[in-house]
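Incident log, structure service

09:12 report received: a user says their structure output differs between two submissions of the same chain.
09:20 pulled the input from the user's history:
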Amino acid sequence: MSIRSQLLKGILEGCILSIIHMQPTYGYELSMKLQKFGLSDVSEGSIYPILIRLQKEKLIIGEMIKSEAGPKRKYYHLTEEGKAALQQFIANWEAIKQPVDKIIDKGGEET
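09:34 re-ran on a clean worker, output below:
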């Protein structure tokens, strides 16, 4: 597994929660949105297991809604627990991102 894949695996759940928070989304649409944001190497095969786990953890709920372009689609919505988990992810991300950015910008030299 590449370094990028390992990093992405750790943050993909938070990215998915964030996209669903912006707007209820179905699986394929979620995949397209991730690609639009530049995560083109994320496959549907890696998204659906995360969606199942998030449902089991009661962070999201799925609702079947009739589609104008074919069969019903399962749209995912955040629960209150999901909103709290997203806020925790954001706090954790910032706590990691800021020091890493400093290290990268300064080349490891302290100021």
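09:41 both user submissions now match this output. Likely a transient worker issue. Closing.
09:42 reviewer note: The chain has a mean pLDDT of 91. The beta strands are 25-26, 60-67, 70-78.
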